[in-house]
Each structure stands twice: as C-alpha cells, then as structure tokens.
Amino acid sequence: MSSAPDLTLPATTPVTPDERAAVEALIRDYAFALDDGEYERWPAFFAEQCFYQIRSRESRDQGHPLGMMYCTSAAMMRDRISGLRRVNVFEPHRYRHVTGSPWIARLPDGTCRARTSYVLVRTMRSGESTLFSSGCYEDVITLLESGPRFLRREVICESSQIDTLLVIPI
C-alpha cells in the first residue's frame, strides 16, 4: 500500500475550463522561466507568503520535515536567487523540464490543488545532457485577479540521490 498522501482529501470540486487554463499556464510558464535561465522571475510565480520545498519521496513518506531546498516566503526566494547570481560558484548548466498534464481540483477554501509529474534534464556547458531529477509537483494555488500564484509548491523527487549541483530551483 502506498504511503503517498491522498490528494483528493478534503472534498474537491472540478475547476472551470478558465481556471484549468490559468493553472496550466502557471505551471508551464514556471518551467519555461527556469529553463530559460530567468531565475529572477521565479519568486513572482508565488504569493508573498508561500512555501517551497524540494525533497525526496522517501523523506516525505518518512515524515522528515525539511528538504534539500526550503523557502517560506517570496523574499527568501529572492535572496536565494541573489546568492545564486552573486555568491554561489557552480559549473554553468541549464534545465529542461518535461511536465505531464496536471490533475487539478478546487478545495473548499477556494484554492486549487494540482499534482503534476515532471522529468528534468540537466545540460552542462560541455553539451552533456543527463536525467537530473524526476518526480511530481504537489501544489496549492490561489486564483487572484492578477493571475494564479503558488501558495505551496512541494517538489517530490523519486530518488533521494540528488547531485550536489542543486543550486537552481526545480
């Protein structure tokens, strides 16, 4: 029996076609921004008070609270990107996300829950491309007039073996 969380609880209702399109655009634009190296755009996909974490499925299933990357606000994300640009020293590389069609439902509080599979390929400056990570995004999204924003994005990696070159958000 799987110890994965039951994402259908609490009771959910279907989203409208417009809401689905908005959430799908958020997920798509997020991946393209990271793939295109537009890291300064990353925090803008989130509400100011938010949660972002990368952790392995094993870590999540065992109830370990912290992951490999952890931010509790858009301000923390901006600091992380500032450090990435100005302080961190790492071998230049790029990501390419391949995402599946998301499962999306509306929660009773009006937010949306989404779950999206992903595969992430990392390409080094040498041109070598390798599978860097695979797993799923588990999201809680608020639908604002200005557009949807992540309240919570948890990246659940299938493998706990992540290269030490995890400097760019997934």
Describe it.
With 170 residues, the protein is an alpha+beta fold. The protein has a single domain, classed as Nuclear Transport Factor 2, Chain: A (Roll), CATH 3.10.450. It has three helices and seven strands, in the order H-E-H-E-H-E-E-E-E-E. The chain has helices at 17-35, 57-61, 74-86; strands at 46-56, 69-73, 93-99, 103-106, 112-124, 129-144, 147-157. Strands 1, 2, 3, 4, 5, 6 and 7 form a seven-stranded mixed β-sheet that branches. It comes from Pigmentiphaga litoralis. InterPro entries: NTF2-like_dom_sf, Rng_hydr_dOase-bsu.
Helix-strand layout with pairing:
Layout: H1 17-35, E1 46-56, H2 57-61, E2 69-73, H3 74-86, E3 93-99, E4 103-106, E5 112-124, E6 129-144, E7 147-157
Parallel strand pairs: 1-7
Antiparallel strand pairs: 1-2, 3-5, 4-5, 5-6, 6-7
In brief:
The chain is of the alpha+beta class. It is about 20% helix and about 40% strand. Keywords: Dioxygenase, Oxidoreductase.
Number of helices: 3
Low-confidence stretches: none
- What is the string of SSEs from the N terminus onward? HEHEHEEEEE
Euclidean distance between termini CA atoms: 28 Å
Helix percent reads 10-25%
Total separate domains: 1
Cα Rg: 16 Å
How does the major sheet shape up?
7 strands, mixed
